[in-house]
Design brief:
By secondary structure, the chain is α+β, with helices and mostly antiparallel strands. It has 3 helices and 11 strands. 16% of the residues lie in helices and 35% in strands.
Length: 180
């Protein structure tokens, strides 16, 4: 299968089974329908080892080309909350003196918080505040300093707990581990 549509103007329609390319140029009428498996096979052949197709998550199938993950734009809600882990919300917690952490909120008792799979947010850039970081993530992950994830941490004197969007969680997870 070969798809070369660089010069033609086309309409693209897709459903869960196939994609249909239809010409909008009256001089070159055509219509091609391809099964998704055929498209993925052609893409895999074109990009060889630089393409991977993920498993279905939240109703979308991520496609990774040269280390960049692509999903349907309409599958990412701007304010869609991060997926829970065993019923735990993904949050950012700011403490009085221990700093800021992102991870899953296991429990809270007053100002005492236990988090799972938590990363310390040592330094962030690309977000004006923790509120923006929890909604939009960081636009400059290369400048952030987030050390390694710990399996569990107990934090005292939590003064702020913000639930994160899915977009923010993915952004935080994409920050390279900071080490010295």
């Amino acid at each position: 299968m070969e798809i070369k549509l660089k010069r033609q103007q086309v309409n693209l329609t897709a459903d869960k089974n196939s994609v249909v390319f239809t010409s909008t140029d009256p001089e070159e009428e055509f219509e091609f329908e391809y099964e998704w498996d055929d498209i993925f096979y052609a893409m895999k052949k074109e990009y060889e080892n630089d393409l991977s197709i993920g498993s279905v998550s939240n109703g979308t199938i991520p496609i990774n080309v040269n280390g960049v993950e692509y999903v349907r734009k309409d599958s990412i809600g701007e304010n869609k909350m991060a997926e829970k882990l065993d019923g735990m919300d993904y949050v950012i917690v700011r403490t009085y003196s221990a700093g800021v952490f992102a991870g899953y909120l296991k429990s809270r008792n007053g100002q005492e918080v236990v988090m799972k799979r938590a990363r310390r947010i040592w330094y962030w850039d690309g977000a004006a505040s923790l509120s923006q970081l929890a909604v939009d993530g960081t636009s400059k992950p290369e400048n952030c300093q987030f050390p390694c994830e710990v399996d569990e941490i107990e934090l005292l004197q939590a003064v702020e707990i913000i639930k994160c969007s899915d977009k923010a969680k993915k952004s935080i997870w994409s920050v390279k581990e900071w080490k010295k």
